[in-house]
Amino acid sequence: MAVSETNGQEGPAGRESAGGEWLIYRGTGERHEGIRALPKPPPWRDFDGGGHPLVAPGPDTDSVSARRLGAFRHLAEMHRPSAEELEIINAALYLRRPLLVTGSPGTGKSTLAHSVAFELGLGRVLHWPVVSRSRLEDGLYHYDAIARLQDAQIAASGRAAGLSSAAVPGGIGSYLRLGPLGTALLPTAKPRVLLIDELDKSDIDLPNDLLNVLEEGEFTLPELQRIAEREPEVEVLTDDGAKVTVREGRVRCHAFPFVVLTSNGERDFPAPLLRRCIPLRLGRPDHERLATVVRAHLGDDLTRVGEDLISRFLERSRTEQLATDQLLNAIYLTHHAELPTRDRLADMLIQRLDQPR
């Protein structure tokens, strides 16, 4: 599958000339109700929520998104993608397909999910940080069977001792909590935003394990299916901390979530996963985009003070692997220092990531 690569050099004028009237996500950083104009999905990506009532929308974007997008984001064209990037992101929205974002560390892969959630009013970003030990079940739900057994034993001991105040253990739903992926697949009127971060760090099996869930938009909880005849409805906790009702041990989405899979490009993914995703490669940012990132997080004054560091960072990044957060750290810290300490601190904080230290 072809992968598009962009370098952030398109300006607003380029976006306006790219047939932008069809765009739902516009990358402006301003909230709007464009998600209401999203057409119905193609028939092969149309989900019915299992015929169950829709659950309440998730909470509003939280401090994590505010930190990602920057305290001064109103001053900058922060995270405004190029025309080609906008088209790819909106293709994922229209087609209800996961967006596979590849790029070097610090190019804004994870921030993209927060930007879409903020602009379209899709609520708190559900975040699943993948590590080498991550399994599909970690993203779907967790059942604490040990805690349930311990509570039952404590209650039995209390009754045996004749304690009228012995705690009565809760039902099975008290020991079940949906993970980020499981919560994203709840039947909601508007799609949730799910960030599956650094998928290339996973065990070799996880990308294949994700295939069926991402294709079918549903999953089952065997613990609840076994008792479905006598207890068809069970309240469980979500990743947001709210309670929802799961019916007959099955969760099926209504609006397929906007899923962002990120990768640093450290491994290849199987073809079945690639064909189910819309690929986007984020290239090395140019001077203008780096400056807008700094402005969004640190404001105009520090951006002007750090102009020389931005230029040096950009020049070094042509031959060295660097991350944007290194630049932010350097500008924030060095504005308190004078020369030559300032240059020494900057060099200490901006060290190349592609060789041993």
Automatic annotation (TrEMBL):
SUPFAM superfamilies recorded: P-loop containing nucleoside triphosphate hydrolases
Region (Disordered): 1-21
Gene3D superfamilies: P-loop containing nucleotide triphosphate hydrolases (3.40.50.300)
AAA+ ATPase domain: residues covered: 95-286
Top-rank taxon, per record: Bacteria
Pfam annotation, one family: AAA_5
Recorded GO MF terms: ATP binding; ATP hydrolysis activity
InterPro entries from the UniProt entry: AAA+_ATPase (IPR003593), ATPase_dyneun-rel_AAA (IPR011704), P-loop_NTPase (IPR027417)
Name of the protein in its database record: AAA domain (Dynein-related subfamily)
